[in-house]
Design a protein that fits this description.
By secondary structure, the chain is an alpha+beta fold. The protein has three helices and eight strands. It has one domain: 2,3-Dihydroxybiphenyl 1,2-Dioxygenase, domain 1 (Roll), CATH 3.10.180.10.
């Protein structure tokens, strides 16, 4: 059902400074950057291992774009640091339904748009041992999310 760690989300106050830290300290490069207005973030994906065929693992650096967003609230309460963990799946709706059936609150009634065309849902951290948890399914062409899609190309 859940096959891999897709990304670790890290809340930061200044995305460009955080990107520079990960580049200068570890040599990680930005594979993708976008603004997700619905989630209230500007984010950069730094590939740690794997390839763009859907098998990769990323760091997701998150800077809030509005004061009332989840990441802004997190920064105000906790400061910078690890914000969430995301598991990859080939079927995010099915995985969310299965986890929800085990008593975990699923925060999104239907999958929402995530980075690189992925589909995502969040699980309540209070039902996950204090860890905000995301389930993510890759776009059909691959990228962040689940398994390689062998039906393409
Ligand atoms: C809040 N809490 C957390 C937490 N954020 N615990 C662990 N990890 C976090 N990241 C705790 C907080 O300390 C409180 O506990 C309690 O939950 C309620 O927090 P709050 O600040 O009062 O409440 P809200 O309104 O911020 O709600 C928290 C939730 C919210 C988790 C429900 O942040 C949410 O819906 N998050 C999902 C969306 C999201 O995070 N989007 C940004 C990433 P105490 O103090 O009461 O014990 S976007 C992304 O990852 C994308 C686009 C992608 O991957 O593609
Ligand atoms: Co994420």
């Amino acid at each position: 059902m859940l096959t891999r760690i897709d990304h670790i989300g890290i809340a930061c106050a200044d995305l460009d400074a955080s990107v520079a830290f990960y580049r200068d300290t570890y040599g990680f490069e930005v594979a993708h950057e976008e603004v997700n207005e619905e989630q209230g973030v500007r984010e950069a994906m730094l590939r740690v291992n794997g390839t763009d065929d859907g098998g990769a693992t990323y760091l997701q650096l998150l800077e809030p774009v509005r004061d009332d967003s989840p990441v802004a609230r997190f920064l105000a309460r906790h400061g910078e640091g690890v914000h969430h963990i995301a598991f990859g799946t080939g079927d995010v709706a099915g995985a969310a339904a299965a986890v929800g059936g085990r008593g975990v609150r699923v925060l999104d009634a239907a999958p929402r748009p995530g980075t690189m065309g992925s589909s995502i849902v969040f699980l309540h951290p209070k039902d996950c041992g204090g860890v905000l948890t995301e389930l993510v399914q890759a776009a059909a062409h691959g990228g962040a999310g689940g398994e390689p899609d062998l039906t393409q190309e």
